């Protein structure tokens, strides 16, 4: 649609400097435009009433009826098959047969009114819907089943405040709890995060910011170690720390095993996040003369902060739910042991495993409670990660933006006065025109 | 502060002055703080390298001791009696691979369908929720899946297993000896604690991880190509099959292999579900199977020094397989258009 704008130059006006020739880029789609006698903008002719918009999304009515019809066909045919015609049985078989009949009937019904590609589109859309529904149904069932079975145990307050010393297999749920495992989990996670965070982040900084010949080798071996099965990490610590060095089975040994497992995960995730920091920011910092460490400390790390926090939290979520390294290295206790260096400890996943394996109904219920509590902790970690990961690298909150603006204003003030990194004292004559410095580019003539 | 020493340039005064063709030599001499920073971070890299290298080296050294004792029998023996030098990974490796294959063949269609659903079909308001949900499910501890598999799935899978054995028993791996489908009073316990149950449990565990990687790849399919397909008259499935799937192939393979690696190495969910047998068990529906990590979890406590190195040899074999799977995945994913960005 071309809206032509034509200028009429009167005699009193000076000649236009350059008259744009009539080029063919303007396609005249409206041939019956009034001749431009009076000048000004010429609007295209009215095109008549606007036709109703086509509905592009949503579900059409006939499509809905097709779906309903196919569903009832599938159900009825399957009931007929199972009850009267063939010796089929079993719920799973029923569902599978009903689904297949439903798909066939739906294809047939759609084919009555649509062409091949449309039929394939409808069928595949239905299949994708059902795949997603099946997966989410399964996952919800796993989580919901655990929480549902764990609720009776979590209902009692003593579940969170006592350990299992006094609660035998036949004792009711109102006695004993999992405090020892909660303490163990928290201590193991603290120790392994104390090992993992500095080592992991520093190694990621080395890989991305310093580099050099060795970094490829380090990156390769870190990538390889993400494949290390967690039980092999546990076996390594068991064989070295416990059997060779004579360290007792303890929370510290378990934390070491967890660190060995978490370290490659954290390094890889942090490596990816640090590589996302825009190169322009680093180059700007270096162009201003900042040494590498200042660039990393003041530009790269703050920019990637949210991503780094996420990578650490995701590593922690993997580590906190891991059972097998703890099984090999921590031992197992029923009493509260707050000392991670000496004596056996137990973590929530290990306790769940041990309780369920015992086979006692009350213990299994407590095991479900411990698993539900563990999931709650993981969920909390995950929400934390989401909060931090909500922002892309370099985005700041309003509060951070205000703080940065204040800092920037202070810097400007300091440079104007001639501070430590500023100019060597105010130049003569600058005092007379203090506004000279804050002239914006737009104000220049 | 950087002090950049530039080698003196030849003075170019006249137009016909000889120009030195060699590039300028730029030397940067760092300040002390910067040298400390670089040295410190190199040291960390070296530390991480040596920790990781020490693990690999230690495993390999201890494993060699066991491997030297039995040689190639290690690959063909099904028993596990290291104290009389009769042990091998034939049984456990078969079980591990079967469980992982069951898991992957169940989880990949589900994960692919869900990933396509989230990235292409789900309404916009639902999409972000589903993405977060899948990521959250990927972080659910494996012991929870094991719990579910042990307490719920063991009992309720019997119907499905019997159905498969009845109708697909002519396929060798689905055959179950000792189960008579026509006898309603036959014991159902022959269908429990099998590789199939463990595989289903692990399938649900790895599906969110696979789905997350695949969705990431699918959602990066370029908008221009999508619109091009639509402009040529494609339906939505036509667009998906001609643009999104070819684009996301690397992500699909990468996600599948990632899930396979996790399924191979999974310990606790498998250990809780299966009942361990030390014989090569091809029939996935039949009770009893084994896996390398379950073997380690079962036998580490009463292992002698030599028994421990035998376990290390088994662990090393598992590690090597997982490593091959992971590197294949990352190589394929990096070569494809979409996979360059997708990672764990």
From TrEMBL, chain A:
Keywords: Cell membrane, Membrane, Phosphate transport, Transmembrane, Transmembrane helix, Transport. One of its GO terms (biological process) is phosphate ion transmembrane transport. Residues 404-445 are annotated as: Disordered. GO terms for cellular component: plasma membrane. PROSITE patterns: ABC_TM1. GO terms for molecular function: phosphate transmembrane transporter activity. It is found in: Cell membrane. InterPro entries: MetI-like, MetI-like_sf, Phosphate_PstA, Phosphate_transprt_permease. It is a multi-pass membrane protein. Residues 182-385 form the ABC transmembrane type-1 domain. The chain crosses the membrane at residues 64-85, 91-114, 126-148, 188-208, 220-246, 252-274, 295-317, 368-389. SUPFAM superfamilies: MetI-like (SSF161098). It holds the Pfam family BPD_transp_1. Its main location: membrane. Belongs to the binding-protein-dependent transport system permease family. CysTW subfamily. PANTHER family: PHOSPHATE TRANSPORT SYSTEM PERMEASE PROTEIN PSTA. Part of the binding-protein-dependent transport system for phosphate; probably responsible for the translocation of the substrate across the membrane. This is Phosphate transport system permease protein PstA. The lineage of its organism: Bacteria, Bacillati, Actinomycetota, Actinomycetes, Micromonosporales.
Automatic annotation (TrEMBL), chain B:
The chain crosses the membrane at residues 43-64, 84-117, 129-151, 188-209, 268-285, 305-327. Keywords: Cell membrane, Membrane, Phosphate transport, Transmembrane, Transmembrane helix, Transport. Residues 1-21 are annotated as: Disordered. GO terms for biological process: phosphate ion transport. InterPro entries: MetI-like (IPR000515), MetI-like_sf (IPR035906), Phosphate_PstC (IPR011864), Phosphate_Transport_Permease (IPR051124). It holds the Pfam family BPD_transp_1. Residues 93-329 form the ABC transmembrane type-1 domain. It is found in: Cell membrane. GO terms for molecular function: phosphate transmembrane transporter activity. It is a multi-pass membrane protein. GO terms for cellular component: plasma membrane. Part of the binding-protein-dependent transport system for phosphate; probably responsible for the translocation of the substrate across the membrane. NCBIfam families: phosphate_pstC. Belongs to the binding-protein-dependent transport system permease family. CysTW subfamily. This is Phosphate transport system permease protein. It comes from Dactylosporangium siamense. The lineage of its organism: Bacteria, Bacillati, Actinomycetota, Actinomycetes, Micromonosporales. The gene is pstC_2.
